[in-house]
């Protein structure tokens, strides 16, 4: 929803900033301003100032700065529109509605959250009543005291198909169905009934602390162990984080955000004094949840259970984050001891044991490297080529060009160092791409060139198609120039043109098509490029004028990676042939596998032309 600058200016003018901040921070009058210890970072000497005349706050210690709306979004973790609505209500202003439907939706949301508030109170009462004995015993065994129960609003959904329905029917059966508290069968002649029965109830609240859904853990035997509210007009499980309302302010103080798997993990860490903790609502971490996490911390720590499911969940979150990360936001990971969850760690070793694990979180790039390295045995060239290709594909998912290049170079450097140190056929020595530096081609050993992609090198048509592709899309050169430089191109004219492209990439920080054309013209290579374009040959996506640029750049990367892999396979084939001639029986099976791998590379290249 769009709000006019005039409305926002009037809202700020009607808001006394010191009155807004005073309930959460002890302000001391200092001339025309107020001073306080900063709510965004720990300090003993006040460096946080509030200026009502100018309508902003500023911290000289950590640099926090903003107005009334910013304070609510940063200090309390509220969404922008929620902050605006809260300030407008206090200022006696009405937030403009985009249309009547938007106003109706706001009123409907308010009504449904009121219903959920009553439901939460009823669940809490049942926990303390006669039906709650087993639930109270369970909580006592888990070390959860009365203060923690009250803090998280825990309750009980008693057994019985209609206990909640009969007790709260005054709220309206239709509203109880709409909030997911009752299930309405498809058959018109059947009555609605309670969704949650015989379960310990965990209220799920939004950033403003309003109950919008519930999660329920079964008491005793039965499946599913956990049951969550369905999506409703006020609850989208893929966009909400459990404990967001309490973890938001805590994360500002702690300067970190911890993400765990379940409700009991959040509560267990809270008991240990670690409050800056959230959890997804029984789902894999979603893009929307990642965005919410990053609003609180640019590098949240994911701390999932130390079992196979926990490790898989961490990797899924890492892969989901790759298209969203940037220079100022990432993820970190802590892998718990085998078979343990955060509550286990705290119960056995206290807060110190958990803090020790948090002290050295694993960066995103290392977590994915470790996962891919350990995914399959790397005893064959095919397996090693597969690892290399997966790493490259992961790096290509990163939108920021400089970060994408850093991930790719770092992963491939580790591959060259850790995975392939015994390999004889090393096409080239990788070094970081630094625009503005002078490129000096590192000639691979003659024996490697003879082995790679056949003794004659890359065929002329494929080589020219690559050159034409990089000339059309020079922005792709920075990610692949070392590989392009190392490819054995037999045709001398095409090889010279390749060298000009690589030198241009190394000498120019931001290379575009016009800039490259000028460089080639100056070097006297424009005629060579014109000849390469006019030759025709293989119709790859990246040589066609009607290709979608993003697809063409992607396919250009796939092509050069496939050719590099083919070079490694060719070298391995030559080595296997030598071993076969020496009488080694295993060499025949190695040759068979390598021929299959080479055919797969050819199929991959053919797929980029749209032909078989």
Describe the protein in words.
The protein has 612 residues and is α+β, with helices and mostly antiparallel strands. 52% of the residues lie in helices and 9% in strands. It has 25 helices and 17 strands. The chain has a six-stranded mixed sheet with strand order 12-14-13-15-16-17. The protein has a five-stranded antiparallel sheet with strand order 1-2-3-4-5. It has a four-stranded antiparallel sheet with strand order 6-9-10-11, with helices on one face. α13 (308-321) links the parallel β15 and β16. The two termini are 50 Å apart.
Task: Provide a short characterization of the protein structure.
With 612 residues, this protein is of the alpha+beta class. It is 52% helix and 9% strand.
Count of DSSP H/I helices: 25
Low-confidence parts: 422-433, 441-456
Shape: globular
Radius of gyration: 31 Å
Task: Specify the biggest β-sheet.
Answer: 6 strands, mixed
Oligomerization state: single chain
Structural class: alpha+beta
Q: Using DSSP, what is the number of strands?
A: 17
Percentage of residues in strands: 5-15%
Could you report the average pLDDT, rounded to the nearest whole number? 85
Level of helix content? 40-55%
Distance between the termini: 50 Å
Strand line-up across the major sheet: 12-14-13-15-16-17
Structural key phrases:
single chain; 612 residues; alpha+beta; 25 helices; 52% helix
Could you outline the blueprint of secondary structure elements for this entry?
Blueprint: H1 5-14, H2 17-21, E1 28-30, E2 33-36, E3 48-51, E4 56-59, E5 65-66, H3 68-75, H4 80-91, H5 100-128, H6 133-141, H7 146-152, E6 155-157, H8 163-167, H9 173-178, E7 182-183, E8 193-194, E9 199-205, E10 211-218, E11 226-228, E12 241-242, H10 244-254, E13 258-259, H11 263-271, E14 277-280, H12 287-296, E15 301-302, H13 308-321, E16 332-333, H14 342-358, E17 362-363, H15 364-375, H16 381-396, H17 401-419, H18 446-451, H19 460-472, H20 477-486, H21 492-507, H22 513-522, H23 526-534, H24 549-581, H25 586-607
Parallel strand pairs: 13-14, 13-15, 15-16
Antiparallel strand pairs: 1-2, 2-3, 3-4, 4-5, 6-9, 7-8, 9-10, 10-11, 12-14, 16-17
């Amino acid at each position: 929803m769009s709000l006019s600058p005039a409305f926002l200016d009037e809202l700020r003018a009607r808001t006394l900033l010191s009155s807004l901040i005073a309930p959460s921070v002890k302000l001391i009058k200092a001339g025309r301003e107020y001073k306080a210890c900063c709510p965004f970072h720990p300090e003993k000497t006040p460096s946080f100032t509030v200026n009502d005349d100018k309508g902003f706050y500023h911290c000289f210690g950590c640099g926090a700065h903003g107005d009334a709306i910013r304070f609510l979004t940063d200090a309390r973790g509220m969404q922008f529109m929620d902050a605006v609505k809260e300030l407008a209500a206090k200022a006696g202003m009405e937030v403009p509605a985009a249309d009547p439907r938007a106003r109706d939706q706001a009123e409907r949301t308010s009504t449904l959250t009121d219903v959920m508030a009553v439901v939460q109170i009823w669940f809490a009462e049942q926990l303390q009543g006669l039906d709650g004995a087993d639930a109270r015993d369970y909580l006592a065994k888990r070390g959860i005291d009365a203060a923690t129960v009250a803090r998280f609003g825990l309750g009980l959904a008693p057994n019985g198909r209609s206990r909640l329905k009969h007790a709260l029917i005054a709220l309206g059966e239709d509203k109880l169905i709409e909030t997911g508290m009752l299930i309405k069968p498809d058959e018109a002649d059947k009555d609605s009934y309670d969704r949650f029965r015989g379960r310990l109830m965990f209220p799920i609240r939004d950033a403003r602390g309003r109950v919008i859904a519930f999660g329920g853990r079964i008491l005793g035997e039965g499946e599913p162990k956990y049951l969550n509210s369905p999506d409703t007009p006020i609850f989208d499980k893929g966009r909400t984080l459990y404990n967001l309302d309490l973890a938001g302010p805590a994360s500002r103080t702690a300067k970190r955000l911890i993400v765990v798997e379940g409700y009991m993990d959040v509560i267990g860490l809270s008991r240990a004094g670690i409050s800056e903790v959230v959890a997804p609502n029984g789902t894999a971490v979603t893009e929307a949840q990642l965005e919410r996490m990053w609003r609180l911390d640019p590098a949240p720590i994911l701390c999932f259970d130390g079992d196979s499911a926990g490790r898989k969940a961490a990797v899924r979150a890492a892969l989901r984050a790759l298209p969203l990360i940037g220079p100022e936001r990432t993820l970190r990971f802590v892998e718990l001891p085998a078979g343990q969850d955060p509550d286990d760690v705290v119960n056995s070793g206290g807060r110190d044991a958990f803090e020790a694990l948090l002290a050295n979180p694993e960066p995103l790039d290392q977590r994915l490297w470790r996962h891919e390295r350990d995914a399959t045995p790397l005893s064959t060239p095919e397996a090693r080529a597969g690892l290399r290709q997966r790493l490259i594909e992961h790096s290509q998912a990163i939108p920021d060009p400089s970060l994408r290049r850093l991930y790719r170079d770092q992963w491939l450097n580790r591959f060259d160092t850790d995975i392939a140190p015994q390999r004889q056929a090393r096409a080239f020595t990788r070094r970081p791409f630094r625009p503005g530096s002078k490129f000096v081609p590192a000639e691979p050993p003659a024996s490697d060139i003879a082995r790679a992609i056949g003794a004659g090198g890359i065929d002329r048509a494929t080589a020219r198609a690559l050159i034409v592709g990089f000339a059309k899309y020079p922005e792709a050169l920075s990610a692949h120039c070392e590989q392009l430089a190392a490819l054995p191109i037999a045709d001398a004219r095409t090889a010279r043109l390749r060298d000009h492209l690589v030198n241009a990439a190394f000498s120019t920080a931001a290379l575009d098509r016009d800039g490259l054309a000028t460089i080639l013209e100056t070097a006297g290579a424009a005629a060579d490029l014109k000849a390469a374009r006019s030759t025709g040959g293989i119709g790859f996506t990246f040589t066609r004028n009607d290709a979608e640029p993003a697809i063409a750049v992607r396919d250009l990367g796939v092509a050069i990676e496939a050719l590099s892999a083919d070079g490694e396979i060719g070298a391995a084939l030559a080595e296997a042939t030598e071993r076969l001639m020496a009488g080694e029986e295993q060499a025949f099976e190695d040759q068979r596998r390598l021929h299959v791998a080479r055919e797969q590379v050819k199929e991959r290249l053919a797929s980029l032309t749209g032909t078989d």
